[in-house]
């Protein structure tokens, strides 16, 4: 094909892509449906003009369109890696991990269920071999969620629901393509009835090899991007190579799933990138990939749609019955997932509860698209597949895709309307009236101030004010109607908490854009805020408080890092995670202090004083919990806390200095050359300020031991020996540290946080510097008390031999043991102990 003609057709396709988005918005149809329709029209038009006798003028263009080098490998090796990689870069992986059970279950089980149900239904109805039927099932089992997710977002559907659908679709594609490759190999080898168990048994190898290759490529790419730190275009070029190297490497070197490799590479870069790359570059990287994915997604859809008239050209009357079987079986498979499996996961509290209208919308919104057509095209291109098999696979996959696009896609918004998902709930409708009334009152005040400042004509101001006053009176009347006054305080509190968390989210994003906090830190605390929003939506005040407590807990990875440090003397992971926790708590404290103003200025005016006061109380509890956790870390690592504060001040000063230089440049006070020099200097100083100081756990534990009054009279040698044998233990709030009647083998010292001690029905609290467990160790009796952490707590643990040795050398510790004894019998027993007779 002539290169000029090929470039011209490509440019025209980009114009079609540009026109599709506003056309979809105008017609209220999914963007993918419009692209498919335009592609089908172009393909059908090219065939028509090539075959018609009306004119030959357009024959060269029609021939060029039909001769476009559209092959399945173009879709699978060029466009698909771009789409998958961008999807993994753009998602909130940490929040996805919270819902990994429903995402993985829905994705993998949905693909397997659709493949088996469609395959066996086709095998039962038709004379096709089972392996061909299963191949068709794997081709049509992948879904394109863009339409339903886009509509859910426009309807303000629960974020967690949209996130689960996105995650399911991403892994859905990976699983479907892996299954396709498996059954395609059986078809080409001529195996008519494969062993299903043996076939699925190869699945772990496909996944494992892909994960290994993808993670390796992403780590190497991250290392390269760090080396090219000063050259942003070089870093972007490295990122473009990542998905393709992962895909080809997994397919060719390991015989594994290239799709899984791309997903693994994207997830690895998503998790590790923000901590190793500058915030500005990370933002630019995601913007570049958003654009690449938009073009790739549109191009793959429109090019695949060009093939539909050709693929459906040999359809026979009996094929329509088989297409109907595929449609019915696919609906049954998806309905089983949505109306059987998903409610079971909700009952087990592994998935959020999804209301029935949403499930119906997801069922009807299960559109198929370019990936299905690309896989069908791969079958039709193969020389090792029988001709009739190629024809049937192409027709069934294409016919099913056309049904989902032209029937489901065009009626999806109508279904949404009939389900009532596009209408405000009574609570939201009542609240909107109050919001409008409050907003209009603020607007009236600001308009009056503006008119007075600019000395506008009184007659004009008076006439406009009269019109505005009428609108305001109507809004106030609606806000004060009986329907609106029936809003329960419980609902107002929930809405207020959601608004408060939403403002907290915007504040974090503002601090990130100002470079006051890093990209890695902002993603972490944004995940915590998302949990606050979802907790408030689902559980109201209690859900909000549970999410707030959860954000301060020591997670499983933190405890594993502590195990590596205590048992294997590997300090790196624990030091890094402790530094992350330190920095996150400091940022949260600074951000939450600014939220009280939002409650007073905004929430109080809409929801009233009582709700605002309660929100202040809940916010104060969060601040107090953060202060407690931060104080515990500050006591353990005092020097490190000061370094983080200094770093924050330096970054704030750099931001303000940069703002001043930019303002002077805009006002013309400094020239372009001077401004460039000033910004370069700020860039160099910012690069130095971005680096986080290293945390030395061993040195800090030594300092912490010196602060304990119980060890004040130990000499330097004893302190060093004590530091080596002390082990750090971390406990979440509510965790039982030791149970009553359990054997006593260790003594614990509270380094930070607080614990509750229950003895004979009486409770007492122990804080920093206190110890417990000493009497059980000394008397060799089971513990008399149950100890429970009441805040995230750090303890120092000393085994029996080390405790007795320290006890013999420390007068202060011996006196503390004596002071801890209350009963007369126990006082007499302790007086006879060898270690306590030394005084």
Automatic annotation (TrEMBL):
SMART domains: cNMP
Database matches in Pfam families: cNMP_binding, Na_H_Exchanger
Ranges of residues in domain Cyclic nucleotide-binding: 710-824
Subcellular localization, as worded in the UniProt entry: Cell membrane
Membrane topology, from the record: Multi-pass membrane protein
Major localization class: membrane
Domain of life: Bacteria
Segments crossing the lipid bilayer: 30-50, 100-122, 128-149, 170-191, 203-224, 244-271, 291-308, 320-341, 361-380, 392-416
Keywords: Cell membrane, Ion transport, Membrane, Sodium, Sodium transport, Transmembrane, Transmembrane helix, Transport
Keyword Transport on entry: yes
PANTHER family: SODIUM/HYDROGEN EXCHANGER, SODIUM_HYDROGEN EXCHANGER 7
Protein known as: Cation:proton antiporter
Species: Paracoccus onchidii
């Amino acid at each position: 094909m002539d290169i000029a003609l090929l470039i011209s057709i490509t440019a025209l396709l980009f114009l079609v892509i540009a026109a599709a988005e506003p056309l979809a918005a105008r017609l209220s149809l999914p963007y993918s449906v419009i692209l498919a329709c335009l592609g089908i029209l172009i393909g059908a038009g090219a065939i028509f003009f090539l075959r018609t006798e009306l004119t030959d003028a357009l024959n060269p263009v029609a021939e060029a369109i039909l001769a476009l080098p559209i092959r399945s490998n173009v879709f699978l090796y060029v466009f698909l890696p771009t789409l998958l990689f961008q999807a993994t870069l753009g998602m909130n992986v940490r929040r996805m991990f919270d819902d990994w059970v429903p995402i993985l279950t829905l994705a993998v089980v949905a693909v397997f269920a659709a493949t088996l149900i469609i395959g066996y239904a086709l095998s039962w109805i038709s004379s096709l071999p089972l392996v061909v039927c299963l191949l068709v099932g794997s081709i049509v089992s992948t879904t394109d969620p863009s339409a339903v997710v886009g509509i859910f977002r426009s309807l303000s559907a629960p974020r967690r629901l949209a996130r689960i659908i996105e995650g399911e679709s991403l892994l859905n594609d990976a699983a479907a393509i892996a299954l396709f490759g498996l059954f395609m190999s059986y078809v080409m080898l001529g195996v008519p009835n494969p062993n299903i168990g043996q076939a699925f048994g190869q699945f772990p190898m496909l996944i494992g090899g892909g994960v290994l290759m993808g993670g390796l490529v992403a780590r190497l790419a991250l290392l390269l991007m760090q080396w090219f730190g000063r050259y942003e275009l070089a870093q972007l070029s490295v990122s473009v190579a990542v998905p393709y190297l992962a895909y080809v490497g997994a397919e060719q070197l390991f015989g594994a799933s290239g799709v899984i490799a791309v997903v693994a590479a994207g997830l690895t870069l998503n998790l590790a990138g923000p901590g190793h790359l500058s915030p500005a570059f990370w933002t630019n990287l995601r913007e570049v990939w958003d654009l690449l994915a938009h073009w790739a997604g549109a191009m793959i859809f429109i090019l695949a749609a060009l093939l539909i008239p050709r693929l459906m050209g040999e359809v026979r009357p009996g094929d329509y019955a088989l297409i109907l079987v595929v449609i019915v079986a696919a609906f049954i498979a998806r309905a089983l997932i949505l109306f059987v499996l998903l409610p079971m996961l909700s009952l087990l509290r592994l998935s959020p509860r999804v209301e029935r209208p949403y499930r119906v919308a997801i069922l009807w919104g299960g559109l198929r698209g370019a990936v299905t057509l690309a896989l069908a095209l791969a079958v039709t291109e193969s020389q090792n597949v029988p001709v009739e098999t190629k024809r049937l696979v192409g027709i069934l996959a294409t016919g099913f895709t056309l049904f989902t696009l032209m029937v489901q896609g065009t009626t999806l918004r109508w279904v949404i309307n009939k389900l009532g998902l596009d209408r405000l709930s009574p609570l939201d409708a009542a609240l909107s009236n109050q919001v409008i009334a409050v907003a209009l009152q603020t607007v009236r005040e600001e308009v009056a101030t503006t008119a007075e400042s600019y000395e506008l004509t009184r007659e004009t101001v008076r006439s406009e004010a009269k019109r505005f006053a009428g609108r305001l009176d109507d809004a106030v009347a609606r806000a004060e109607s009986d329907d609106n006054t029936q809003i329960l305080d419980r609902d107002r509190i929930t809405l207020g908490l959601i608004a408060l968390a939403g403002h907290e989210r915007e504040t974090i994003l503002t601090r990130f854009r100002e470079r006051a906090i890093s990209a890695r830190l902002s993603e972490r605390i944004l995940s915590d805020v998302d949990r606050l929003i979802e907790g408030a939506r689902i559980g109201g005040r209690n859900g909000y408080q549970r999410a707030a407590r959860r954000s301060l807990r020591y997670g499983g990875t933190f405890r594993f890092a502590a195990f590596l440090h205590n048992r294997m003397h590997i300090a790196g992971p624990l030091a890094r995670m402790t530094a992350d926790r330190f920095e996150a708590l400091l940022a949260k404290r600074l951000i939450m202090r600014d939220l009280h103003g939002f409650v007073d200025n905004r929430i109080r005016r809409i929801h009233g004083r009582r709700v605002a006061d309660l929100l202040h109380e809940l916010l104060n509890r969060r601040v107090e919990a953060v202060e407690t956790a931060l104080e515990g870390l500050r006591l353990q690592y005092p020097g490190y806390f000061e370094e983080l504060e200094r770093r924050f001040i330096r970054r704030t000063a750099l931001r303000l200095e940069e703002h001043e230089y930019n303002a002077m440049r805009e006002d013309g006070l400094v020239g372009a050359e001077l401004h460039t020099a000033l910004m370069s200097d700020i860039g160099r100083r910012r690069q130095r300020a971005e680096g986080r100081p290293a945390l030395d756990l061993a040195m800090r534990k030594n300092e912490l031991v010196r602060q304990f009054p119980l060890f004040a009279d130990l000499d330097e040698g004893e302190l060093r020996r004590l530091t080596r044998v002390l082990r750090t233990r971390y406990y979440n709030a509510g965790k039982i540290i030791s149970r009553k009647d359990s054997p006593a083998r260790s003594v614990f010292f509270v380094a930070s946080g607080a614990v509750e001690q229950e003895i004979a029905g009486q409770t007492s609290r122990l804080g920093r510097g206190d110890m417990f467990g000493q009497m059980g160790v000394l008397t060799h009796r089971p513990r008399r008390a149950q100890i429970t952490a009441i805040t995230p707590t750090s303890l120092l643990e000393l085994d029996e031999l080390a405790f007795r040795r320290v006890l013999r050398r420390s007068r202060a510790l011996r006196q503390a043991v004596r002071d801890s004894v209350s009963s007369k019998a126990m006082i007499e027993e302790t007086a006879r102990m060898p270690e306590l007779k030394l005084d």
